[in-house]
Specification:
Elements: E1 4-9, E2 12-20, E3 26-28, H1 33-37, E4 57-60, E5 65-68, E6 71-72, H2 73-79, H3 82-91, H4 97-109, H5 117-123, H6 130-144, H7 152-177, H8 191-200, H9 211-224, H10 231-241, H11 246-257, H12 265-278, H13 283-291, H14 312-327, H15 333-346, H16 349-353, H17 360-371, H18 378-399
Antiparallel strand pairs: 1-2, 2-3, 4-5, 5-6
Helix pairs in contact: 2-9, 3-18, 4-7, 6-7, 6-11, 7-8, 7-18, 9-14, 9-17, 9-18, 10-11, 10-18, 11-18, 12-15, 12-17, 14-17
This protein binds carboxymethyl coenzyme *A.
């Protein structure tokens, strides 16, 4: 196997080392490219750029593989819980029972948020999107819970604050948006049950914790927990590389996740399915629109930068949809439309040739709807799930001996040097 790549430029040959990952992936280390040749690389959207080495998550987009710390996503979805998976991602190994108990106690102990934060919610204009509110609130957490020294125990406490308080803040924002009384977290509930109770309990109709719903939420969050160097995780790493505090880096991740091409796709999928239902279930028309290059419309929940086959998370999510709906003894006409849409697209030449398959967001909204989560909270649910990944990636970048502030180059295509003309002479 070649250990170097040769670049011939202006009749001179330069050698650059080939780096090999633990699963055999290969990269050219061009960290000395500019110093040696004067050249930079140009790679819009970083589609061919490895921005770091990481030991957290492995993906193989051709084979549809996703593993956290080496463990296949299918096994975690079947056997783990969200807090256990969060521990695995953040600390690098599965916890012992004692470690997991301690972690769960800490999550419960830190679940309250400062009462003054409630005032913030009241001052956001009505109809503010919950992702904008969440991003601001997470940034504001730093003012309420500042770190004194950047030492390991302080970081560990901030990690617990984020995992626990973001869940509380999200449920609180929902209650306040409806004008309902806030429900406080409880010590006797697990992570997922506590969230559901804070969302749905009310004095008129106390919320009944249903094991099936708790299990579904655990799986939903496990599937979203990390996905290597995606848009929001890269945002966390880039913003964090300036050595900003962890709250601010996570707040940047939440803002990046909001976009409809990224985490916001789960909301966009349900809106698209609604639209199809409203317009007479014309699935074929929507597929035709998605193929039309003059139409900016895309099939939401389809396609992925890395997966060129079925997203393994979507496979699990699709099975879960049927399971959850049958356990809750309910049906959803949007699920039927989604299945018809998937079948039509997967048999269409355009989608076959472009390797476009359903991604995690295609079926996730159906599950969230069944649980009772409102559509505009879908991306917040993604954000809670992605927290352990963002935190693990931030921690890894902070400890990376090769760390450097993120500062890409560009190819300038603007005007050459131009003389300033005073305003009256223009
Ligand atoms: N519908 C129709 N055509 C598509 C779609 C789609 N959903 N996705 C990609 N294409 C086409 C695209 O038009 C292009 O065609 P051509 O080569 O003929 O010009 C080709 O496929 C490659 O697309 P791309 O935009 O260069 O691919 P990308 O890797 O830059 O973008 C993506 C990936 C996920 C942004 C894109 O597939 C997309 O917009 N999908 C819909 C939004 C969505 O579901 N996002 C959630 C992603 S999974 C959750 C997460 O981790 O964020």
């Amino acid at each position: 196997m070649a250990e170097h790549v040769k670049i011939i430029f202006e009749d001179k040959t330069y050698k650059f080392p080939v780096v090999v990952g633990s699963e055999g992936e290969r990269a050219i280390d061009i960290s000395k490219l500019r110093r040696n040749t004067g050249l930079v690389t140009l790679d819009p959207g970083f589609a061919n750029t490895g921005s770091c080495s990481s030991s957290i998550t492995f993906m193989n987009g051709e084979k549809g593989i996703l593993r956290y710390r080496g463990i296949p996503i299918e096994q975690l979805a079947e056997h783990s819980t969200f807090p256990e998976t969060a521990y695995l991602l953040i600390n690098g190994a599965l916890p012992t029972r004692k470690e997991l108990n301690h972690f769960s106690v800490m999550l419960n102990d830190q679940s309250l948020v400062h009462e003054d934060m409630r005032i913030f919610f009241q001052n956001f204009p009505r109809h503010s999107h919950p992702m904008g509110i969440l991003s601001s609130m997470v940034n504001a957490l730093r003012s309420f819970y500042p770190e004194r020294h950047i030492i390991e125990e302080e970081i560990n406490l901030i990690v617990i604050h984020l995992l626990s308080k973001v869940r509380t803040l999200s449920a609180m924002s929902y209650k306040i948006s409806r004008g309902h009384r806030v429900v406080y977290p409880r010590h006797d509930f697990s992570y997922c049950a506590n969230f559901l109770n804070m969302m749905f309990d009310n004095p008129v109709k106390p919320y009944q914790i249903d094991k099936e719903v708790v299990d579904a939420l655990n799986v939903f969050w496990i599937l979203h927990a990390d996905h290597e160097q995606n848009c929001s995780t890269s945002a966390v790493r880039v913003v964090g590389s300036g050595r900003v505090n962890l709250y601010a880096a996570i707040s940047a991740g939440i803002a990046a996740l909001w976009g409809p091409l990224h985490g916001g796709a789960n909301q966009a999928v349900i809106e698209m399915l609604y639209d199809i239902a409203k317009n007479g279930n014309n699935v074929a028309r929507v597929v035709e629109r998605a193929k039309d290059k003059k139409d900016p419309f895309r099939l939401m929940g389809f396609g992925h930068r890395v997966y060129k086959t079925y997203d393994p998370r979507a496979k699990i999510m699709k099975k879960m949809c049927d399971k959850v709906l049958s356990k809750l003894n309910t049906s959803d006409p949007l699920l039927d439309i989604a299945k018809e849409l998937e079948e039509t697209a997967l048999n269409d030449n355009y989608f076959i040739e472009h390797n476009l398959y359903p991604n995690v967001d295609f079926y996730s909204g159906i599950i969230l709807r069944a649980i009772g989560i409102p559509t505009n909270m879908f991306t917040v649910m993604f954000a809670i799930g992605r927290l352990p990944g963002w935190i693990a990636q931030w921690k890894e970048s902070v400890d990376d001996p090769n760390w450097r502030i993120s500062r890409p180059r560009q190819i300038y295509i603007g005007s050459p040097e131009t003389k300033y003309i005073p305003i009256d002479e223009r």
